[in-house]
User: Fold this.
Amino acid sequence: MTGIGAGLLLQLGLGALAVVSALAGAPSLRSRAGGILCTLIAVTGFLTGLAALLGATGGLLIPIALPMDPLLLAPDRLGGLFMLIVSGVGILVSLYAMSSTRGPDASRTAWAAMPVFLVGMQLVPAATDSVSFLLAWEIMTLGSTVLLLADHASRATVASAGIWYSAMSQLSFFFILAGFAVLAAASNGTSFTNLQAIEPGSGPANVAFVLFLLGFGGKAELVPLHVWVPRVLPEAPSHVSAAMSGAMVKIGVYGGLLVCVRLLPDGPAWWAIAIMLVGGASALYGILQASVSSDLKVLLAYSTTENMGLVFLGLGASMLLRGYDATAAADAALVAALLLAVSHAAFKSTLFLGAGAIIHATGERNLDRLGGLGARMPVTASAFGIASLGAAAIPITSGFVAEWMLLQSLIHGGRLDGAVVSVAASVAMPLAVAVIALTAGLALLTFVKAYGIAFLARPRSVEAADAREVPPLMQLALALGALSVLALGLLPGPIAALVANTISSNPTVAVQSVGLGGVSLPGIGAVLDPIILVALSALVAIPVIVSIIVSARRHPHRTIDLPWGGGGSRARPRMQYTATSYAEPLVRVFDDVLKPSRDVQVTHVAESRYLVEHVRVEQRVSDVIETRLYRPVLNLFQRYGIVVRHVANGSIHRYLSYSFVALLIVLIVVSL
Amino acid sequence: MAAVSAIIIALVQVVLFVFLAPLLIGVIRQVRATIEGRAGAGIWQPWRDVRKLLVKNPVRAADSSWMLRVGPVALMVSSLLLCVLLPLVGTIPFPSIPSDLFVIVSVMLIGVVALALVGLDGGTAFGGMGSSRHMTVAALVEPTLLLSVYALSIPAGTSTISAIVETRLFSPEVIISPVSVLALVALSIAIMAETGRLPVDNPGTHLELTMLHEAMTLEASGRDLVWLEVGSWLKLAALLGLVSNLIAPWGVVTDFSALGLLIGVVSIAVKVLVLGVLLSVGEIFLAKVRLFQVPELLAGSFALAFLAVTASYLVA
Assistant:
C-alpha cells in the first residue's frame, strides 16, 4: 500500500474512533478527546494532501460487487491541493472547538458529526470515480447538517436554517447526480477516466455542464443559489461556520474545477461566459449585501459568496482566454483562482473563528452593540484585523496576491502579441476588471466597518464593556489562522509555483518563484515581491518612527476623558456611529438593488409638536433574490400542498380507488 | 547598477516630495486666497503648522486605542511608499518590485484604511461619519481608478507605470490619442475624489456636516495630526506628480546621470507646482456637490474609463 492509501485509511480509522469515543465517552472528556482526534484526522489529511500535491501517486481501491467501475480514492495534484485546504481549516477548527464548545455545541451528536464532516470533505477531492465522489459528498453534507442543528432545541432560527440547508444541499446533490448520470450514460463508465472521453462541445456534455454549474454553484454559494448562506452560516456554531465557509465551500469550487479543467477541458466559449457572468454577479451581490449587513456573521457569510464569485470569475476568464490561445494569461487566471481559494480558506476561517470568539466573550454578534473590544481582547483583535486585511485584499496578505494576479491576467488577456484576441474578450476583460475593482472597494468598506465598529472606539453595550479574552486554545487557533494569512501573502512565489503544478504540466511557463519568495508571471511579464515591499516600508518608516520617539520624549501625550468637547458631557457611547449608520450612504447609493425597507417613527412631546421626545428608526435589508425568486416558488408549492390535501383526505376508499385506477392505467399502457 | 540608481532616485524622490508637499499645499492655499481677494497666510504656512504640531503634547481620548497612534504612521508610510514607487523624478524601477499600478493603488489603499480606522477610533459621531463617507467614496472610486489604469497600460503592454511613462516619452502621439485623453480625465476625477479635493470634499472647511477628510482628523492632535496631514499632502503631491508625468513626461530621468537627475528634480517640482496652481484656480469655480451626487460624478468618470478601455481594443 502506498503512503496516500495509508493516509486515507488512517483517516477513516481515526474518524471511526472519534465517532465511537464521542458516542461512548464521558461528557467531561468529550470535547478534549473529540478535539484531539479531529486534529489528528486533519493533520493526517494535511500530510496526505501534501504528498498528493507534490506528485505522489497511489490510493485506496474499494472493490464492490455492483456492475460498475470499482471505487477508487486516489487524489491527483488538484485533489491534493483541496485536501490540503480542507484539512488546514480542519486543524484550526478542531483546535478551536476543543475549548470553545459548550452546552449543545458539545453534545454527543455534535462531536460524532464533526469527524464525519471532516473525513467526508477529505474524501471528495480524493475520489476518482463518480460513485465514490457522490458518496463522499453525501457524507460531507450529512455531517455538516447534523453539526448545524446542534442548537436547534433552544433557537427556532436554527431549525429553519436546517430546513433551508437540507433543501438547498439536496438540490445541489440532485443536480450533481444528474450531471454524472448524463455523462456516465454517454461514456459507459463511472470512473473519471471514462468520463474524460466525452467531447466537451457535445450534447450530453452541454447538459451535464449546466447541471454541474447549478449543483456545484449551489455548494459554492453562487447567486442565485446562495440563499441558504445568510441563514445557515450565522446560525451554525462558529467553528462549524468556519469549517463550512473555509473548507466545505471550497469543495464546490473543486467540483467546478473538476468539471471545467479535468473532465471536460476546453469547453465552448459560452461555458466560460456563463461562469464569468455567474461569478461576477455573485461577487457584486455578495459584497453589496455584506457591506450593508450589521450582523457580523451574516456579513462574513455574504462575503463568502463574494469571494467564491471571484474564484469562478477567474476560472471563467481562464477558460475564455484558453479558447483564444492566450495560454499565459489563462494559466495565470487559473492559478489566481486557486490562490484565491487557498487564501479565502485562511482568512475566512480565521474571521469566523474571530466572530466566534466575540460571541464567546459577549454573546453578541450584532455589530451595533459591540465596540471597544480591541483593548479587551487583544489577540482576537489582532487575528481578526489581519484576516480582515486579507479579506480586503490589502498588501501584504494572501488576498492581495491572489487579486493582483487575477487583475494582471485579465489586463494582459485581451491581447496576444499586440493583436486583439476577440471582441468577446475585449468586452469581457474590462467588465471583469470593473467588477473586481468595485468588489474590492466595497470589501474594503465592509471590513473597515467590521473591524472598526467591533474593536475600536467605545463599547456600545454592557456585554461588550465586560468582554474578556477567550481561552488560550482558541487564541492559538486564531493566531495560527492569522499567521497563515500573512505567510501566504509574504511568500506567494513558492506557493503559487506549487499551486501551478496542479493545473499545468509545464508550470514554470505560467508562474515562477523569484527573489525572496516573490512571484513572477513570465508569460505576461509581471513581478511582485512582498518581502521587498515590506523592507521598503520599514526603510521609509525609520525616520518617521525616530522623530516620533524624539518627540514623545520631549512632549508626552495627555489622556483626557472627554474626546470631543463640543458635545459636552453628553457624548455617550450610544452616539457613536454604528455599523448600520456606517453603511447608510451605501444603502442610499445602491437603493435600487438592495430595496431596503425603512420605518421612522417620531414621537412628539405632548405640549408641543415641534419638540421631539424620541425617534425610532428601523431599517431592514432583505435578500432581494430570496423575496423575488424563491418566495413565489415556495408560495406555489404551498398552494399545491393545500390543494393536494383535498385529494388525499385520509379516506381509505378513495386511496383504494386511486390504486385501482393506477392499476388500470398500467394495464392499458402495457397492452398498447 | 540599475538597482543602485533606482535606490538613489527613490531616495531623491522621497526627500524632494517631503519638502515639496507642504509647499504645494501652501501654494494652493495662497493662490486661492489671492484670487478670492484675501491676504492669505503665505506659502510657508504648512511648514509652520508642521513645526507647531510636532512640539505640542498630543491629547488623546481615554477610550482611544493604539490605532490613534499607529494609524497616522501607517498613512504616512503608505504615502512615502507612493513617493518611492511612482516614477516622479526617474523611471528606473526597483528590481522585483516594479512600480506596478495595482500595487501602487493598494499601497494607497493602506493609507485610506488607516485614516478611516483613525476616524472610528475616537468614538465620536463625527469621526464615524467622516470615516463612513470616506470609505463610501473610496469604494466607488476604485473601479474608475483601476479601469483608467488598465486603459493607460494597453499602449505600453504592461501595468508598470515607469514603462507607461517611458512609452509616452518616446512616442508622444500616445498622449493625445482619444483613449489616453479619456483615461486621463477619468483618472484625474478619481484622484480628486481620492485626495479629498473639490467637488467631492472641501479641504477648506472645518466643522461642517458635509466634510469628509477633516471629520476623521478631528480627534487627532499634536504629532498624530502631523502624520495625518503630511501623509495626505504627500499623497496629493505624489498623485499630481503622476498625472503631470503622464501628461507631460519630458524631463523625467530614464538613464541615470547627475545632470539628468537635476533636470528631473527641477522639472517634476515645476510640473507639480504648476498643476497645483491649476487645481487651485479650477477649484475657485467649483462648489462641493452633495454627498449623494458624488456617485453620479464617479459613475460618469467610470463611463469615461470604460470607454477608454473598450475603445483601445476596438478602435486601435
